[in-house]
Amino acid sequence: MFRILSAVAVLGMFGGVAHADGGPFGLGLILGSPTGIAGKLYFNKQNALDFAVGEAFLNQRGFDVHVDYLWHPVMLTQDEAFFLPLYIGVGGRLLEHERHTDTAGHLGVRAPIGILFDFKRVPIDVFLEVAVVLDIIRPSEDDVVDVNAALGVRYYF
Known about the structure:
By secondary structure, the chain is mainly β. The protein has a single domain, classed as Beta Barrel (Porin), CATH 2.40.160.20. The protein is built from one helix and eight strands, in the order H-E-E-E-E-E-E-E-E. The protein has one helix spanning 2-13; strands spanning 25-33, 35-42, 47-56, 62-78, 82-99, 102-119, 124-137, 145-156. The protein has an eight-stranded antiparallel beta barrel with strand order 1-2-3-4-5-6-7-8. A hairpin with a 1-residue loop joins strand 1 and strand 2 (35-42).
């Protein structure tokens, strides 16, 4: 886990596009499912990699780690204070949760869609997203499809 976060932080130092007055790497909090730490690394204005590490609370509860490649194809609106793009993506999710007497693991494909309040004058964004997860590897009695929904904020440096 530490290796993944360290690698993302190093990539953030060498990313190509600045975000607001900060850099291309943002780190903050995500609330919902999962609840924990969220990060995002911009490659350019329309492409980014995001991740979250935390606790899932909706249908399937447990320790959740996900990474998504995001596209920002549509600008819904903008004014002097912020941009409001729509984003979509594809990625993966690892979920680990306790079951009666053991621990179960899930590995699945994740498809998020969301909106992003990208402030122009401060290096902060606020996001709201919903993601459908299709678990490829899972215990046979667990659901194949799961849903994540969350609100988050990130500071860019």
